[in-house]
Write a structure and sequence with these properties.
5 strands; Rossmann fold; alpha/beta
Length: 145
Amino acid sequence: MRILVLNGPNMNLLGVREPELYGGRTYADLLDMIRAEADKLGVDVYFVQSNHEGALVDAIQQAYFDEVDGIVLNPAAYTHTSVAILDALKATNIPTVEVHVTNPDEREDFRRVSYVRAAVAATIRGHGLEGYLEALRFLVSRASA
């Protein structure tokens, strides 16, 4: 099983960006956590992070051509603005879990709208970096069912 872990804008600044919300662990720490969990689950993971909407769309489309089995997606700020990412998810139809480190429903009003939610199998929000591990486990259990 191959899973793409796709992160949107500013996620590369974990540990620096608003540590009171996102904690002190870095993006490198996140990748290490995910790799360790993927090893336990026996899945291959690869990572893309971009601050550019088109690069995220390209990664979703490439995942289709690479026959990726699932996507763990934190679109970050594009959650609330990107019809393009939604359309790419709908077009490729790859099982996707939307992940948010914080709970957008408990933040500013504009963060309560998720465009991508219409095309995902599940949403995990407010569980910190561990939400990514939950998303991996969800995709593996779904593929095993």
